[in-house]
């Protein structure tokens, strides 16, 4: 990576970290689905679209950000407009609480989230190098991990006040917008010119980066259903009530938040094998959840599963060693795209494995073997994978 002549100010860094808080905005309305359905006299299954529709628009905006941010449109401009769309459009349903406006507001939020996965990590990687870069990515991941949890809790409070007030939660992005406008410097353009031909560099995604996309997709597909079925494990086995299920589920975010602060040192120790270790930990977590005979065992399992959220900074750092500066934004945005596509595929996966296994917890059982296979295959790939001759995007 070419060292920046500009330095990211404290205000700009805090602004970016606050943007990371918004990455989980697609799913934060989960506690309000029943209230929205009752107020609008609609089926809860239909209202559940407030959780799936944003993912579609996140895919679209992620692809747009990867293609145009830093090349056609300035990073700061793209980020500011995305924040405005998320804040204003996302809050619109609080003023006009109708189903069409709710769907519009969720589409706006989804558009913003796709950009928030793409641009902020790249900006951190452009302004920092080596240990500083990894430490800042870990800090950013901690913000992302705790952001969705805090916003979802707030939604749970707001829905008891008035059901449509939950959409005001999107105003949280206003603080990030102000700080970005005040303190975010524009880094170097991603457009580079070939010294020989004089032509603009084309986007190039090497095979190791493509394999990393496959890795995070498979890990998410096999591991994340633990969040969906933890309540079944707790209540059906008589381990506790819904309150206990929620407490155990929170361990997922506690794990990701706590370990993110140590991401820099951990990555430095394990390097290219860190992603494999994460897959193994998620697999161990799935085993603990599936066979849980106590709340402690289930909580430990969710803590291990939560390490999945470390995959994002891990693969961003891995990818940076393989990419030219001109391809960094597209690769970072595509990680977010893959995660959102995974949200769509998770439904059919659960349906298929439940049908085959004839048990509600069959997705967990099949996921254990899926993660084991993923870990073995990618461990072999990493063993055979040679370090790049040069690391144009991530110099120490």
Question: Layout of SSEs?
Answer:
Layout (H helix, E strand, L loop, with lengths): L9 H11 L12 H8 L3 H4 L1 H20 L6 H21 L3 H29 L2 H32 L11 H11 L23 H17 L1 H12 L5 H19 L2 H8 L3 H17 L4 H11 L5 H10 L7 H30 L4 H23 L12
Helix pairs in contact: 1-6, 1-7, 1-8, 4-6, 4-16, 5-6, 5-8, 6-7, 6-16, 7-11, 7-12, 9-15, 9-16, 9-17, 10-11, 10-14, 11-14, 13-14, 13-17, 15-16
Give an overview of the whole structure:
With 396 residues, the protein is mainly alpha-helical. The chain folds into two domains: 10-183, MFS general substrate transporter like domains (Growth Hormone, Chain: A, Up-down Bundle); 207-384, MFS general substrate transporter like domains (Growth Hormone, Chain: A). The chain is 71% helix and 0% strand. The protein contains 17 helices and no strands. It has helices at 10-20, 33-40, 44-47, 49-68, 75-95, 99-127, 130-161, 173-183, 207-223, 225-236, 242-260, 263-270, 274-290, 295-305, 311-320, 328-357, 362-384. Helix 5 (75-95) runs antiparallel to helix 6 (99-127), helix 10 (225-236) runs antiparallel to helix 11 (242-260) and helix 13 (274-290) packs antiparallel against helix 14. Mean pLDDT is 86; it is low at 1-5 and 392-396.
Point out poorly predicted stretches.
1-5, 392-396
Name the CATH class of the largest domain.
Mainly Alpha
**What is the helix/strand order?**
HHHHHHHHHHHHHHHHH
Give the CATH topology of the largest domain: Growth Hormone, Chain: A
């Amino acid at each position: 990576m070419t060292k920046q002549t500009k330095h990211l100010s404290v205000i700009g860094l805090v602004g970016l970290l606050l943007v990371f808080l918004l990455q989980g905005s697609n799913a934060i309305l989960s506690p309000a689905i029943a209230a929205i359905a009752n107020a609008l006299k609609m089926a809860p299954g239909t209202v559940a679209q407030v959780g799936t529709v944003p993912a579609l628009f996140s895919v679209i905006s992620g692809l747009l950000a990867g293609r145009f941010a830093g090349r056609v449109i300035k990073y700061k401009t793209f980020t500011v407009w995305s924040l405005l769309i998320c804040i204003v459009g996302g809050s619109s349903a609080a003023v006009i609480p109708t189903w069409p406006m709710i769907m519009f507001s969720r589409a706006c939020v989804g558009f913003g989230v796709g950009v928030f996965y793409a641009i902020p990590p790249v900006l951190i990687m452009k302004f920092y190098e080596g240990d500083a870069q990894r430490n800042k990515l870990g800090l950013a991941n901690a913000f992302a991990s705790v952001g969705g949890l805090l916003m979802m809790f707030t939604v749970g409070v707001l829905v008891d006040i008035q059901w449509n007030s939950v959409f005001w939660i999107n105003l949280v992005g206003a603080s990030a917008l102000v700080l970005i406008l005040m303190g975010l410097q524009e880094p170097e353009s991603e457009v580079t010119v070939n010294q020989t031909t004089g032509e603009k560099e084309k986007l190039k995604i090497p095979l190791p980066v493509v394999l990393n996309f496959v890795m995070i997709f498979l890990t998410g597909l096999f591991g994340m259903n633990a969040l969906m079925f933890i309540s079944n494990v707790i209540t059906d086995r008589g381990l506790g009530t819904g309150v206990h299920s929620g407490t155990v589920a929170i361990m997922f975010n506690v794990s990701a938040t706590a370990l993110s602060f140590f991401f820099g040192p951990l990555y430095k120790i394990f390097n290219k094998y860190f992603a494999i270790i994460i897959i193994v930990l998620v697999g161990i977590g799935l085993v603990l959840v599936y066979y849980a005979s106590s709340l402690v065992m289930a909580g430990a399992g969710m803590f291990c599963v939560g390490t999945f959220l470390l995959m994002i900074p891990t693969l961003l750092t891995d990818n940076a060693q393989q990419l030219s500066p001109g391809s960094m934004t597209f690769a970072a945005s595509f990680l977010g795209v893959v995660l959102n596509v995974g949200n769509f595929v998770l439904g059919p996966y659960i349906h298929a494995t439940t049908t085959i296994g004839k048990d509600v917890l069959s997705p967990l059982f099949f996921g254990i073997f899926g993660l084991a296979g993923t870990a073995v295959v990618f461990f072999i790939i990493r063993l055979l994978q040679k370090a790049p001759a040069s690391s144009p995007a991530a110099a120490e």
